[in-house]
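Quick illustration, no need to memorize.
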Amino acid sequence: MAHRWQLPEYGGIDALEYVPAEIAAPAIGEVTIRLTAVGVNPSDAKSLAGGWNADPSKLPLPVGQEAAGMVTAIGPDTEIATGPVAVGDRVVAFKIAGAFADEVTVAAKDVFALPDSVDDETAAGLLHVGVVAAELLALSGASEGETLLVHGASGSVGVLVVQLARRAGVRVIGTASEANRDKVASFGAEPVVYGDGLADRVTALAPNGVDAAVDAAGTAEALEVSLALVGDHARIATLAPGKPAQEAGVHISAGMRPDSIARRGPLRAVILGLAADGAIALPIAATYPLVEATDALRLVASGHPGGKVVLTP
């Protein structure tokens, strides 16, 4: 029998329960997927505590937004986002509800054919961070010949911002810990250690200034340094939608914002295509069995997973 993780009541990671799940047969516009890999994201952990977006009517709350797997059933007259589909096809799905499971029935419009060149674990972790990275880069307006400062350049979103920017001919300076300097450099950025004196270290690398900044770290330091170094604050983009960013007038990328939702949707196929061509790579930091999803969530919630975390049902 299929199983899934769900949240019976708001209370954080410890409130999660692993329960048997009855999988509905797919209706028109739906497909059923037996999952082989599931992406774990910080927003998955944040949603468990409740807070400003708590909605008791959604309980028990299914957990997880992205996954890869194999199609096991197809609704009548149904195609997926990339076209016709058959039972047995490899696919990736995002953005869905309830991906922390071994089987799901989901809207076909959020399901994409998985190219042979992309493995299941990469696919399962790619689309969420990929569309965020692409949106942040677009909001910054960074273009060929310019210099872009990327905060959190060693994280899952940051490494993809770096790769996408370098493909566009942008010079990238990326912040990271001392331990991750080589990792940032391997993706084509010039690494700089974050912490006290960051603005001075960036200025030493770019004495003529930086043209734009992307905050993939979501820290106070990232916003402060970006505001200090980028003359046009409309060239700053952040994934931290808090009051400081709003008051500063910088661009915000956030999954609950209608403008972000509209921008990210079309980017899913673009990111998948780049991965299929080998143009971008996603570091996988750790994999956990589905039954150990709470441990995976704790690692991601720590803020320093070292790359993407994936579950394997």
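The chain has two domains: 3-117+278-312, 128-260.
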